[in-house]
Amino acid sequence: MTAACNGTGGIVAAVIIGLALLVVVPLVVDPIFLIELTSYVILAILALSLGLIWGYGGILCFGQSAFFGIGAYAYAIAVINMGDSTIPLILSIVVPALFAALLGYFLFYARITDVYFGVITLTVTLILYKLMGTTSGSAYTIGNAAIGGYNGIPAIPPLNLPGSPTTFLSLDGLFYAAGLTLLAVYVGLRLMLKSRFGQVVVAIRENERRAELLGYDARFYKLAAFTIGGGIAGLAGCLFANWGMFISPDVFGLAQSAQVIIWVIVGGTGTLLGPIVGCFLVQWIATQLGTQQVLNANLVLGTILIGFVLLVPKGITPTVLDLIERTCQRRSYAKPLVEKRSVS
Amino acid sequence: MSAECVLETRGLEKRFGGVVAISSVDFNLKQRELRCLIGPNGAGKSTFFKMLTAQIKPTTGQILFEGVEITKAQPHQVSQLGIGIKNQVPDVFNNLTVRENISVAARSRHGKARAAAIASEVTERLGLTGLVGRLVGELAHGQRQWVELAMVVALEPKLILLDEPAAGMTADETNRTAELIREVNKTAAIVVVEHDMQFIKQIAHTVTVFHQGRVLVEDTMENIQGNELVREIYLGKADDD
Ligand SMILES: Nc1ncnc2c1ncn2[C@@H]1O[C@H](COP(=O)(O)OP(=O)(O)OP(=O)(O)O)[C@@H](O)[C@H]1O
Ligand SMILES: [Mg+2]
After folding, report:
1. Which of A178, A201, A318, B64 could form a disulfide with B8 if both were Cys (CB 3.0 to 4.6 A apart)?
2. A103: closest CA of chain B, how far (Å)
3. A315-336: per-residue pLDDT in tens?
4. Per the domain annotation, does A24 fall within a domain?
């Protein structure tokens, strides 16, 4: 980890920069692009959740979008029935967190290996895709909410001010709400990683057996981190359902699952900034590619991913931070440093 | 069993497929005893330690710690009860700093303030103060052994198992390790596995000799050195190396 951005000063700086961006960006960008940008911010929260459990917890989850989708569906179904969005918002965090806890309990306590964990989480996501797809027709309604099969749920009511069901969040407002949520999640995770809990989670990633021999129940800590990650992904799902006012089983599809992993790989594991940067960059490139007809967008994205894995294996953020650190040190010692840090 | 027994095994056995690594071992250790465990390569010493700390499950037999059966416990439970182990291969958090390694260990037993005090005390005692900011993965083999020792000591265990603590250390470092072991022994029982006879002579009172998964003899260091059988299977061999 880079010492320069580790302390409380780093967190304060992040808050100031984050708030400044939140104020300035809507003033300078095109309103249409702001809507686009809002979706990046929401997806960056999803990226952060995987950045936590994969980058810090060492848990290779190929199905992070499952919790995102469950959060979105939980919000949609609840808000259609309830009107007021306060409880639906809470449910969008709690339901996927519980789902993560249940799934994680069976997998961690069975001490399943990393690769199987990846395969099983992906499989669960794809099962959800099929399952939600079969829910078309009037038989599949929960209260007033028709789940709609592959057609999804349209016209999802937006968030309202707690206790005031008629004061809805506007699309502009959603940018601020999503931005503040991203900032809050980022800061919350930074603080968590500094705490005893966070230190133990990282220690388990580094060497699970040693952590257990020090008296920590690795299964419990991994389960807790996984559950938190599920809740955060669900919250992102709720915001996403607000953004498009629509949700369909596509969130459980293979493409969506792969996308989250690509963001984290491009941005870099082991930092919290990395997944956010990766998500913004990849989504922006994808949008740009979508506007032209010359090259196949997926082909270009695939090439970019392979390029990153081969040329910048640590991802953008850790590589840039390393460079900054090395130039600083080179200046103070005036001699080249040999890179010896082992890569996990 | 007597009240002052810290560790006892009854008919402990471990088979890996056809290989019998440990067979009917009845081992007894008193509170604050310092015991050396020796035996040729493959005698089963590390396997024995791993069973005591629940890293592997025994095939049959029982393990009791302070009279409580821990045969089926989880590794973290064994640690919480008060057994600390340094494994044969350095077993540390390579991408964390020395400070973080030791603090994670200290925090497992104590609140923030007490853990910080213990961590800095242990760091100083093991001469790691100058290295606290370094990544453990960057350190030399001997220094990583010290970090692992520091982590074990920071747990303040009642029983410490050290699997070849002096391996890869210089003569000077070995002497310091022996000194540390004697000091820690004031508050904890210790079992040390070592091949270095000079080192064992420095610290040992009673020595247990393992051979082909069984306890061959258990005696004072003097008698062990005079024992023909031990010479034949172990010391003679060691001299050839
Ligand atoms: N995981 C395993 N699977 C199969 N066989 C094993 C395993 N671990 C140990 N053994 C075997 O069990 C026997 C005892 O091994 P162990 O490592 O306990 O010996 P040791 O006394 O510690 O030797 P050394 O002095 O070389 O460290 C050896 O024959 C070894 O090959
Ligand atoms: Mg061994």
Report:
1. B64
2. 21
3. 888 888 888 877 776 655 443 3
4. yes
**Locate tokens 């911010």: which residue?**
A41
**Ligand 1 proximity of B57 Cβ (cutoff 6 Å):** no
Contact B75 A210 (CB under 8 A): no
Predicted ipTM > 0.85: yes
Search chain B and give the residue with CA nearest A217.
B76
DSSP string, A110-158: TT--HHHHHHHHHHHHHHHHHHHHT--STTSEETTEE--GGG-B-SPPP
Q: Ligand 1 atom closest to Cα of B48?
A: 18
Is position A301 within any domain? no
State the pLDDT at residue A303: 84
Residue A196: which of B93, B107, B155 has the nearest Cβ?
A: B107
Instruction: Name the amino acid, one letter, at A252.
Output: F
CA dihedral B159, B85, A270, A50 (to 10 degrees): -80
pLDDT digits (tens, 9 = 90+) for A78-98: 999 988 889 999 999 999 999
Burial B75-113, CB ≥16 within 10 A → b, else e: bbebbbbbbbbbbbebbbbbbbbbbbbbbbbbbbbbeee
* B contact residues 115-154, partner A, Cβ 8 Å cutoff: 135, 137-138, 151
Does residue A341 have a pLDDT over 70? no
Q: Where are the domains of chain B?
A: 1-82+157-241, 93-156
User: What is the total count of domains within chain A?
Assistant: 1
Flag whether residue B102 sits within 8 Å of chain A, measured between CB atoms.
no
Q: Is the CB of B25 under 6 A from ligand 1?
A: no
Closest-CA residue to B230 (of B210, B201, B206): B210
The answer to whether B46 faces chain A, any CB pair under 8 Å, is no
Strand, helix or coil at A107?
helix
- Structurally, at CATH architecture level, domain B1-82+157-241 sits in 3-Layer(aba) Sandwich (3.40)
Which of B55, B80, B138 lies at the smallest CB-CB distance from A209? B55
Q: Which of B75, B95, B151 lies nearest to residue A206, judging by beta carbons? A: B95
Nearest-Cα distance to chain B for A338, in Å, is 11
